[in-house]
Amino acid sequence: xxxxxxxxxxxxxxxxxxxxxxxxxxxxxxxxxxxxxxxxxxxxxxxxxxxxxxxxxxxxxxxxxxxxxxxxxxxxxxxxxxxxxxxxxxxxxxxxxxxxxxxxxxxxxxxxxxxxxxxxxxxxxxxxxxxxxxxxxxxxxxxxxxxxxxxxxxxxxxxxxxxxxxxxxxxxxxxxxxxxxxxxxxxxxxxxxxxxxxxxxxxxxxxxxxxxxxxxxxxxxxxxxxxxxxxxxxxxxxxxxxxxxxxxxxxxxxxxxxxxxxxxxxxxxxxxxxxxxxxxxxxxxxxxxxxxxxxxxxxxxxxxxxxxxxxxxxxxxxxxxxxxxxxxxxxxxxxxxxxxxxxxxxxxxxxxxxxxxxxxxxxxxxxxxxxxxxxxxxxxxxxxxxxxxxxxxxxxxxxxxxxxxxxxxxxxxxxxxxxxxxxxxxxxxxxxxxxxxxxxxxxxx
Length: 445
What we know:
The chain is of the alpha+beta class. Helices cover 38% and strands 21% of the residues.
């Protein structure tokens, strides 16, 4: 398996021999095998473990096991406990989604702060198949059928060459210990129901099903890339940008096949939903002018063209000043925030939620300014010692146009303290020498 592991990394150019990789290790069989393979291959790595606190002593025991694993390999170990249920309730999301958000944000923070090149997770071929069915059951386009990518941004999946059987055999051959998550046996979660009930049933009919579906997923991914390239070329021919507007030639659009699919690919990036796209198609042959509104654009049918115009931003308060205060101050407009000065740090724990920020109070100067972002804004993202343009940060974080328009900055003078709800500036972080903390959060945190 070690040879297949090394070949997979080399073939897909996942990283260089000298790269430092942060391994996401839960203590389960998959991540333990990944750590052992990195050790045997003599790659440079560290271990990161998330304790979501969802299974009491079992969660704590897993953290202790991972710490011992890191000692065995003599590599750095980073462990973090998370208020997972609180985060889920505060953001109106499932516990599983909350855990995902918390861990990937923390992994990236550690990666930047400790100078790792990439983050590795232990997804394997059986996870690939399960993800395919999850997306298929929930409803998806072609993008949801290509499974788990080998690499996405700074995250790599170096075990996507192995199946669960191969991983189990590797643990026996190498006498590896691992921990079993008791929740993996429960079929109340969709993934577990697919794993324990659906896939075994299909495998009875076709024992080679998993291998064959994996091959199909790979072909779907290739076809998606080809389709994206073709759509990109077609989009350039049918759509032209003039100033802030986009013009779509109706005769060119009307004659394409399949019209509904391509119209969706063309208009969805402008915020139009499937129902609206269907209504727009129906009016292509009409003579009267029609207007459709998305969250960010206005579409006007005008003779032989569809005209896409960005919506004029509503006249809202774009800046406010926050004066000094004794202990606590609440702000309702333009966005709801609460500020607290904390002088006794003996019991203070830095929150992990992105909706809260902890700032070294002695590093800021009042009054603070809360304002919308502007082109040219830059800051030092937490964990980084170099400046980054805010526009580049938006790209890295995959901000939509609406996300950027609703982004607020908390500033001390001309320096950005906090990209509100997303990332603090490294220069204002809490350090061992911090004496007072300014804790900031939304009113419901």
